[in-house]
Request: fold
Amino acid sequence: MNDDREYLPLSLLSQAGYCLRRAALILNERIWEESADTAKGRAEHEKVHTQRIEHRGKQLKLYEYPVFSEKLGLNGKCDCIEAEASEAGCKIPSVDFPVELYPVEYKHGLVRQEEEYEIQLCAQAMCLEEMYEAEIREGAIFYITSHKRQIFPLTPELRKKVKETADILRKIRENYDIPYAKYSPKCKRCSIREYCLPKTKQSALNYCLQLERDAREEASL
Reply:
């Protein structure tokens, strides 16, 4: 990795898929608030995840595995990478034989179709492909509550969405943009809706955000 470059967190791709304004507030304003759903999800992740490698013969599971992409300008961790011995696979530092890599993203709750999860999963695979010159054709999302796995092909269309989302987030970061709110039913479930104020007129909202920024700058002096 280039230590001088600012890499954006992989997790922001999922946030951007849910709501671009939410992602921008997290990225540029460092705003975050726990809700019952986010707290439950974090607790479930903590129960099953510590950074470790599990060996079972020629099969491995690598948990909380760090990944990055110079091309996408992203870094983060994969919840789990399943690696199985294969002559057509790639070499990774953890083992002395070639393996095929299969990323698995863990989510709490029941099985549901959420495109932002697919984008995050595909981004993890693209990082691994760049790091190890691998080819990854599919991955899976494991829903902790229901103990069910959903398989997703990593299609060219999905890869294009990953790149587009990463490019949008990069521009938001470089220009310090906060996109306007677009109120929808999912705003009711958002943990930072009190900061976002999706129903507030933009002139008043921008004024409030500027006051908050000024207060933070004064506090840091």
Summary: The beta strands are 8-9, 52-56, 59-69, 74-90, 99-107, 138-143, 148-153.
